[in-house]
Write a structure and sequence with these properties.
The complex is a heterodimer.
Chain A lengths: L7 H25 L3 H4 L4 E7 L4 E4 L9 H12 L7 E4 L11 E10 L2 E11 L27 E5 L2 E2 L1 H9 L4 H29 L1 H24 L4 E9 L9 E10 L2 E5 L15 H15 L14 E4 L15 H22 L14 E8 L4 E7 L29 H7 L2 E9 L13 E8 L3 E6 L20 E6 L2 E5 L2 E6 L4 E5 L13
Parallel strand pairs in A: 10-11
Antiparallel strand pairs in A: 1-2, 1-5, 3-4, 3-6, 4-5, 6-7, 8-9, 9-10, 12-13, 12-16, 14-15, 15-20, 16-19, 17-18, 17-20
Helix pairs in contact in A: 1-5, 1-6, 3-7, 4-5, 5-6, 7-8
Chain B lengths: L1 E6 L3 E8 L4 E8 L5 H10 L8 E5 L2 H7 L6 E6 L5 H4 L24 E4 L2 E2 L5 E3 L6 H10 L4 E5 L8 H12 L3 E4 H4 L5 H28 L4 E5 L5 E2 L1 H6 L7 H17 L3 E7 L4 E7 L4 E2 L2 E3 L2 E3 L3 E2 L2 E3 L5 E5 L5 E7 L22 H7 L17 H15 L3 H23 L11 E5 L7 H7 L4 E4 L6 H7 L3 E12 L4 H21 L7 E11 L6 E4 L4 H13 L8 E12 L20 E9 L2 E9 L8 E3 L2 E4 L4 E4 L4 E4 L5 E4 L2
Parallel strand pairs in B: 1-4, 4-11, 5-6, 5-9, 9-10, 13-22, 22-23, 29-31
Antiparallel strand pairs in B: 1-2, 2-3, 7-8, 11-12, 13-14, 14-19, 15-18, 16-17, 20-21, 23-34, 24-27, 25-26, 25-27, 28-29, 30-33, 31-32, 33-34
Classes of the chains: A alpha+beta, B alpha+beta.
């Protein structure tokens, strides 16, 4: 081992110093935001970047933002140079964003006249306008999904641009909540900028710059060591989404992973072309899924930074469902397609490292959006929730039940919090017994969540694994597929995996989420 | 005579205050983990008293039962449709990138989770009445399954406790222990409330059994039990609210910190308790800070607990070089066995483990002949061997690696101190660092330096500090109630709600023997802007809403004075003031430390090898001053002063270091 150009002690110390900043930003954002999405469900992430847009540190909040954040900042800073005191806002999936509800704020950090880096955070807002409450409709074009914000200045030289602010609030269903969340995001970035400047005061820009570079190289070395330990070869796998929410056909996703020495090539050629419906993923999402899988194979406390992706080349054909082009709708790419991309990556990696890779987890986030006019409280409401399911089993470990897997880890809304705030009553919140795949190590069970409507409402479901089942590995059985039911006047009606529906007062919406795949044959001893 | 007894994993600590001499005596005995009461009772025999002894006891009985899964077989009764809430939790996984990590298994397995037909709305109306006729049968089946204790948590029971109370009665009639959520934690968010109630039910029988044994031996004494909120309670209350005693040891330390704060006049303290495997830090801002969002062993505990942040960094933390070439320290620890390389207990065939303690020894910062007051001799050669192995990997000298290990360990601990101070809006420069625990004295001044903390305090009972805190503890009870009212609710009306809690507090405190004159009641409201889902606790007053906006601004950088506010919970903290031991200050003797001088020896400090004076800490007279570099050896800890540090012994024998 050589370390001719860095001090192994300082490397470790700077790792801590940098990592602490996005964590502190996250604490500010979580506690001061309005949306349950952000506070209760932690659907956000915070990160620091160097002046060139390399991500130096990211707090472990939500995996789907992992690879996406660096791309956002890189694209954004090329589009719009930022001066001291500016804050950029964006959500355009084709200009640094991922899907419209995820709003990103980027603040430059200047040391006197010189740009040193950026603090950025991204948070999932409960509504950004568009066709249906919650802004994840079954759309055909991006324009239907909500307000599109290209990279623009929300704050200029320390002053909020009131025009931009008012225009955003005029285009969303719950403006007070949005204003609160944006303020929380601004406060988080301010905190990040201040902490980075504290580090500059303590260590000087030169040393900070040097060690942020060393940390990128450090994570890269660890990733290279991980790839080198895998057997050289090509590993392919394909799986599919149920449909795009408009057509009936399945949407296949295919990957071929080539391991060659210390490098990996991840090729998604052969995946479906981009779809009419909203399951399209922009490249940033695909990159996040790749990052996530490699991050899980790395040592737990390796720093989260851009170095992880350096030895990995990702090929995603332009115009495909894993690298969509303007103006394809994308709301579900982030939340559903990202899960299937992970499934195919794991299916391929399982051939290279069978002892380390779990069977398929539920493979969906079961996005449930309900909105309308609350006739009891006399106010509009939008409710968004993702629902956990079964986790895939691993060699030596059964899958956990009723839990979020892979690209999300958002908390549920407590039943009592939900009933205090919305015109619903929860009738059942239970583990869906027997839904995990059988195996020597069985897959985890899904969830049943039944909501009784106390007001008429409009619901959108963006779910998957309703017609295919999460695969088992090594002889284990697949998990049960999920089910969406509408119970009206005592009779059950099966709802499709994706769609928008009008609900009447007294209707029950029952979401039953998939189980995880099992691992290993039962009789194998 | 007032006696604090803190039972830890290795030692049981005793701190005895004699009101006649106004002096404090401390001693330790080896703990007896097979029966923790044994060491306690044996120790108490060493301090007989003709008068009634007041014993304040903190034990890990409840904690260990929870962490080691050794609580009573427990059942759970919930509203129809919700028995899995305990297992689903918040549906998140404990570690984002670790497929091996699972949430801890629920304390009640599914077959012991029962549902009853009943439902209450968010406005407290009964939607479906509880069918009382099903209860005897339910109690019989639960009893027959071998369960000893029952937790009951129904939706919205904090608004309408009748259903839970009826079930409680049925379970009691069947001879079962029972904990109901509207009593244990009457606040909203069903998972956290269920988890807390279940934890209570799970540890209560163990606590009951343990207390019965102690009480039988201490009939003539007045026994109080230390709680995690920094106050004590009567054993009877500890039996029904066992979950309130879950972190009593660290809470003792925090109360001790308040006492030192009063002695020294430092209002704002960061406490730093560095032990063998981990370090606990807390923040004191004139008063103790409590959290209602604690998690113990992965189980949320919603009752107020001293806000302690723990990191896996201690004297026994193991150093290694990772695959990316960085020097890492911890969180793996060498523990007590085999312990650091210098303990000389490495089993044959294994390599000695290089630890933080070894690094300190290699740099001359620990005296090998005087570890734990000479009870243990350290082996410097084993330490050098272990650390030079890392040096060869990194191409650095033994001293460079040892300094590096200490810097990395300090970086971990610095991050913990930043979390509780800077991250929560406090400026460490306005605080003093109070260091206790055996391993902290060598690190405290350096740590303070890196956070620009101007002063470090090291109390005379550094290694028995939690037990010291226990003798200073008042009786404290916390009450809460979710109300979910609009912020426009007239203050009078809120006052009336609070009166109910106050009446309950006065009554329960009277049962503790606390008269109204000695009772301090501090009402507060948990407030948020409508739509938020996190509350701030604000003292109740005529300008409570104004104060909320100010605190929100200070904490999060913005406020919305015109936005509607929600009153989520009422809170009441009731403190029964117990006359504090008055420790007699000692008169000034001399500023000259020379009577404690031992020798001068070479030490590696940040600037390199420096001849350093060594002192016997116990012999330093009140008023004595020492200028760094210096090493102060005490039985309980070793203290390092770097070149520009200055230390002074105050009249209470606290060592006050001014960081250079």
């Amino acid at each position: 081992m050589t370390h001719s150009n860095y001090d192994p002690i300082k490397l470790e110390i700077f790792k801590h110093m940098f990592a602490a900043i996005p964590e502190e930003m996250g604490a500010v954002l979580q506690k001061s935001s309005y949306s349950p999405n952000i506070k209760e469900r932690r659907d956000f992430s915070c990160a620091l970047f160097d002046a060139a847009g390399n991500m130096i540190a990211q707090a472990a909040h939500i995996p789907v933002h992992l690879g996406a954040m660096p791309l956002s900042v890189q694209q954004a800073i090329q589009t719009l140079p930022l001066n001291p005191g500016d804050v950029m806002i964006l959500n355009d999936p084709y200009r640094g964003g991922t899907h419209l509800p995820d709003i990103t704020l980027v603040s430059p950090v200047y040391v006197e006249e010189t740009l040193f880096g950026f603090a950025a955070n991204r948070a999932h807002h409960a509504d950004v306008g568009g066709m249906t409450p919650g802004s994840m409709p079954i759309a055909r074009e991006l324009y239907q999904e909500g307000l599109i914000l290209p990279p623009i200045k929300l704050v200029e030289a320390g002053q909020i641009n009131r025009g931009v602010w008012e225009m955003i609030l005029a285009n969303v269903r719950t403006p007070v909540e949005r204003a609160g969340d944006l303020q929380a995001q601004l406060a988080a970035n301010q905190r990040g900028v201040r902490r980075l400047l504290d580090l500059v005061t303590r260590y000087g820009t030169e040393e900070l710059h040097t060690y942020s570079g060393h940390l990128l190289a450090y994570t890269e070395r660890m990733t290279r060591a991980l790839i080198k330990a895998l057997p050289n070869g090509q590993y392919s796998f394909s799986d599919q989404l149920d449909n795009d929410g408009i057509g009936e056909q399945a949407v296949p996703i295919r990957v071929t992973i080539t391991i060659a020495g210390e490098q990996a090539e991840i090729d998604f050629s052969g995946s479906a072309p981009q779809q009419q419906g909203s399951v399209n993923a922009v490249f940033a999402i695909t990159l996040s899924a790749v990052y996530y899988v490699f991050r899980c194979l790395l040592s737990l406390d390796a720093p989260n930074n851009s170095g992880c992706l350096a030895p990995i080349r990702v090929i995603a054909p332009e115009g495909s469902v894993v690298n969509a082009v303007h103006p394809a709708p994308v709301a579900g790419g982030n939340v559903e397609t990202s899960q299937r991309i992970v499934d195919v990556l794991l299916g391929a990696m399982a051939q290279a490292a069978p002892e380390k890779i779990p069977a398929a987890s539920q493979g969906t986030m079961n996005n449930t959006l309900i909105g309308g006019w609350d006739t009891q409280r006399k106010r509009p409401f939008t409710y968004y929730e993702t629902i956990g399911g079964g986790m895939g089993a691993l060699h030596g470990k059964p899958g956990d039940s009723a839990i979020h897997s892979h690209m999300t880890n958002t908390l549920n809304t407590p039943v009592e919090a939900l009933e205090f705030a919305y015109p619903f009553r929860v009738l059942q919140y239970a583990i869906r017994q027997g839904s995990g795949g059988a195996g020597r190590y069985p897959g985890g069970d899904g969830i049943i969540r039944d909501l009784l409507m106390l007001s008429p409402a409009q619901a959108s479901l963006l779910t998957d694994r309703r017609s295919t089942r999460p695969y088992g590995l090594n002889g284990g059985s697949p998990g049960e597929q999920g089910e969406n039911l509408l119970i009206r006047d005592g009779s059950n009606k099966l709802l499709p995996s994706k769609g928008s529906f009008d609900l009447k007062q007294g209707d029950i919406l029952s979401i039953r989420t998939p189980g995880g795949g099992g691992h290993g044959e039962i009789d194998a001893d | 005579m007032r006696i604090g007894v803190d039972i830890g994993g290795t030692f049981t600590d005793f701190v005895v205050y004699n009101p006649k001499t106004k002096q404090v005596l401390t001693f330790k005995r080896l703990s007896t983990p097979h029966n923790p009461a044994e060491a306690m009772l044996a120790g108490l025999e060493q301090v007989p008293s003709p008068e009634k002894r007041e014993i304040i006891h903190g034990s890990t009985v409840a904690t260990n039962a929870l962490l080691e899964g050794k609580g009573a077989p427990t059942a759970l009764v919930t509203t129809q449709g919700f028995r899995d809430v305990l297992q689903i939790g918040r549906q998140n996984r404990p570690s984002l990138y670790d497929w091996q990590a699972s949430p801890p298994p629920p304390l009640v397995p599914r077959e012991w989770r029962y549902e009853v037909t009943e439902r209450v709305s968010h406005q407290g109306e009964v939607l479906t009445a509880l069918d009382l006729s099903q209860l005897p049968q339910l109690a019989t089946s639960i009893k027959a399954s071998g369960v000893e204790s029952v937790a009951v948590c129904l939706l919205f029971s904090f608004l309408h406790p009748d259903h839970e109370q009826a079930i409680q009665q049925a379970m009691r009639d069947a001879g079962l222990f029972v904990s109901i959520s509207s009593h244990v934690l009457p606040t909203f968010r069903e998972y956290e409330r269920t988890s807390t109630t279940v934890a209570n039910a799970y540890v209560a029988p163990v606590m009951d059994h343990y207390l019965a044994e102690i009480e039988a031996q201490l009939i003539t004494d007045d026994l109080q039990i230390m709680q995690s909120n920094g106050g004590s309670i009567h054993p009877e209350a500890a039996r029904t609210h066992a979950v309130r005693c879950i972190l009593s040891g660290p809470a003792g330390g925090a109360v001790g910190a308040i006492a030192v704060s009063r002695q020294t006049g430092f209002q704002q303290l960061l406490t730093f308790d560095m032990g063998g495997t981990s370090t606990d830090v807390t923040l004191i801002d004139g008063e103790l800070k409590v959290t209602k969002e604690a998690s113990v062993g992965g189980f949320p505990i919603g009752v107020p607990i001293i806000d302690i942040h723990t990191v896996g960094s201690g004297g026994g933390s193991i150093a290694r070089v990772d695959e990316g070439g960085a020097l890492r320290v911890g969180p793996e620890s060498a523990g007590a066995v085999p312990g650091p390389a210098c303990y000389g207990q490495t089993p044959p065939g294994s390599l000695p483990l290089p630890t933080v303690t070894d690094a300190n020894l290699v740099l001359g910062r620990l005296a090998p002949e005087y570890f734990l007051g000479g009870q243990m001799t350290l082996n410097p050669h084993a330490a050098i061997e272990a650390i030079s192995r890392l040096g060869r990997q990194l191409d650095l000298s033994v001293e460079q690696v040892a300094l590096g290990i200490i810097q990395v360990a300090n970086a971990h601990m610095e991050r913990a101190l930043r979390v509780i101070s800077i991250e929560r809006g406090h400026d460490p420069r306005q605080f003093a660092l109070l260091s206790f625990g055996g391993a902290g004295g060598l690190h405290a001044a350096d740590l303070a330096r890196s956070l620009s903390i101007p002063q470090v305090l090291i109390p005379p009972q550094a290694a028995t500090f939690s037990a010291f805190g226990m003798i200073m503890a008042d009786v404290i009870k916390d009450y809460s109630q979710t109300v979910m009212l609009p912020g426009t609710t007239p203050l009078d009306s809120i006052g009336q709600h609070l009166e109910l809690l106050k009446a309950q507090a006065v009554e329960e405190m009277r049962a503790e023997g606390i008269q109204r004159d000695n009772l301090v009641l501090e009402p507060a409201l948990d407030l948020r802007y409508q739509g938020q889902s996190f509350e701030l606790t604000i003292p109740f007053s005529a300008k409570v809403l104004e104060d909320f906006n100010t605190v929100h601004q200070n904490t999060y950088g913005y406020a919305n004075p015109h936005a509607p506010v929600e009153i989520v919970n009422l809170r009441l903290k009731a403190t029964g003031i117990v006359p504090s031991p008055e420790i007699q200050p000692l008169p000034f003797e001399t500023s000259d430390p020379s009577r404690a001088y031992l020798d001068t020896r070479p030490l590696y400090l940040t600037q390199g090898r420096i001849e350093t004076k060594v002192y016997a800490g116990e012999k330093l007279p009140p008023g004595s001053k020492i200028t760094g570099p210096a090493l102060i050896l005490r039985e309980d800890t070793t203290i390092l002063l770097e070149t520009k540090d200055q230390a002074e012994v105050d009249p209470y024998l606290n060592l006050i270091i001014t960081v250079g």
